[in-house]
Structures are given as structure tokens and as C-alpha cells.
Design brief:
Number of strands: 18
Distance between the termini: 31 Å
Number of helices: 3
Helix content: 10-25%
Strand content: 35-45%
Shape: globular
Length: 282
């Protein structure tokens, strides 16, 4: 059976969630990776309808203001502004006629780099060694890095050290090829994991995602590395670097709310590459 977050219905007008889209927050609660991927797909489709093949994604902002359930999802898009060098497109995800999330995509026309010298950090995170994570286009359980080193065992990384993840994108809709933008837009929700995961598990739920890109990913393998985190009074802001096998390509900022009553204890969960999730008593 093909791994994907959704199947299409009504001639592609709506998306129906698969088990792979269900989050750890609840059995009828979709995770942000799937919802964000669906909205990115809708933005790309609208841009294609507008004939704007000259533009590429530069900024993608998502508001996850209502839990998405397993009801069919539909998407309403609007071109807010279109000009010679940019297009701003909005999308709203709807269930039973009610908005559950929204996103805005800014697409820019590439030109030439400037010649002046400007500061940059000069270093970028790296994926796992190829003997650990060989290049692939097939979905797999994320590789994680903390003080425990690289592994796919989530139980080894429930600690207070800096987190990095290495992910291979899952197709958004069964039977459709996954694009690099859909992959990075979906995986961007994982910035909450690398910035909010600590000794007790994930005690925050993210309310938004802001992804910035200077180029498209080279493929559908995407890495995220935590670079900053602030928290006060139950509000947390985390920042992550986005990278692929060619280097850094953008940043992600997520704003999260404390959700300690429904903590996701990743020290008790493990996944298989076919999407199966097991829970241990450890």
C-alpha cells in the first residue's frame, strides 16, 4: 500500500486523511505535517493555474488555529497580489465549511546575486553520514540527532540537548508525485519537534509555521536543526535552520503554547518505515 497522508475524492476537490496523517495528540486529530503539506499543494496548484512558472517559493506562513479532524479537507485559494516579480497567494483549509487553518505563500522571481559582501554565519548543519542515511526518495522514519548521536530510535533522544532531524518527505496525496516545495512545507511542522522536545517529551503544541527559502530544496530529503528557543509564561518561540544535501536553504520559526496536560511522550513511541506506530511502557 502506497504511503501518503491523503487520498483524493470528488475528482480531486477534497482530500481524505489516511492513518498516516493522524497525530499523537488524538485519534481524530491530524498532525500539522499533513495539513501543511495539503495547503502547500493547493498553493502550488493555484500558481500553476496562473501560469507563473517563473516564480519560486520564498516565504510560507501557516496558522494552525483549529484542530483538523479526519473529515474531508477542501482548500480555497485566492491570489492576493500578482506582479512581474512576485505573487502572493492565500489558502484556507476547510472541513464541513469551517476554516481549520490558513496559509499564505509568497513566490518571487529569481534574478542575479549582488556583489557586495554581507555577514553570514559561514557554517551549516549536515545530514547524517551516507552510510547511516543513504540518499533516497522513499519515505522513512526520521533520523534524529542529539547528544545520543544519530539514530531512528526516538527513545534515545528524549533529553535536553540540541536536536536535529533528517527526513524523507511523504507524498501528500496517493498517486501524486511529491514536489520539493510540498516536502519542505510539510516537514516544516517538524520544527516544533526539534525545538520543543525535552526530557518530558513534547509539552507544547505549535500554533503556526513560518518557513523562508532562498531556493527550492534539491529533492525531498529535508533536515531541520534547532538554532534558538525562548519561552515565558507558557509561550515558546523556536527557530530552526532548514537544510538539504547541498547545504542550508532557509529558516523556520514556530510559535507554541504549553500543552502539558496532553504531553506527547516520545520516550514511549517508536515508528516503522511503513507508518506503523508502537507504544511501549518504558
Amino acid at each position: 500500500m502506497e504511503l501518503a497522508f491523503f487520498t483524493s475524492d470528488d475528482g480531486g476537490a477534497s482530500l481524505v486523511a489516511t492513518d498516516l496523517a493522524v497525530s499523537s495528540w488524538g485519534k481524530d486529530h491530524l498532525h500539522g505535517v499533513a495539513v501543511s503539506g495539503g495547503m502547500a499543494r493547493a498553493l502550488e496548484s493555484r500558481l500553476e493555474q496562473e501560469g507563473r512558472t517563473d516564480l519560486r517559493p520564498a516565504r510560507y506562513t501557516v496558522d494552525l488555529f483549529r484542530p483538523a479532524s479526519r473529515q474531508p479537507l477542501t482548500f480555497a485559494t485566492e491570489v492576493v497580489r500578482a506582479g512581474p516579480r512576485l505573487a502572493l497567494v492565500d489558502v484556507t483549509a476547510l472541513q464541513d465549511g469551517r476554516a481549520v487553518s490558513r496559509a499564505s505563500g509568497l513566490f518571487l522571481k529569481p534574478t542575479a546575486d549582488t556583489e557586495g559582501e554581507v555577514w553570514s554565519p559561514g557554517t551549516a548543519p549536515s545530514p547524517p553520514p551516507v552510510d547511516v542515511a543513504p540518499p533516497t526518495t522513499e519515505p522513512h522514519v526520521p533520523y534524529l540527532h542529539s547528544d545520543a548521536g544519530w539514530s531512528q530510535d526516538f527513545r534515545e533522544h528524549q533529553n535536553a540537548s540540541r536536536k536535529t532531524s533528517w527526513n524523507s518527505g511523504v507524498p501528500i496525496v496517493a498517486g501524486e508525485p511529491l514536489t520539493p516545495f510540498q516536502a519542505v512545507a510539510a516537514i516544516a511542522d517538524g520544527a516544533s519537534l526539534v525545538t520543543n522536545w525535552g526530557t518530558n517529551g513534547v509539552e507544547h503544541i505549535n500554533t503556526d509555521i513560518t518557513l523562508t527559502l532562498v531556493r527550492r530544496p534539491a529533492g525531498t530529503e529535508i533536515g531541520l536543526q534547532a538554532v534558538d528557543r525562548l519561552e515565558q509564561d507558557g509561550i515558546a518561540v523556536g527557530t530552526a535552520t532548514v537544510f538539504d544535501r547541498e547545504g542550508a536553504l532557509g529558516t523556520i520559526v514556530v510559535t507554541s503554547l504549553a500543552n502539558a496536560r496532553r504531553t506527547v511522550d516520545l520516550g514511549k513511541e517508536q515508528w516503522e518505515d511503513d507508518g506503523r506506530r508502537t507504544t511501549s511502557g518504558a
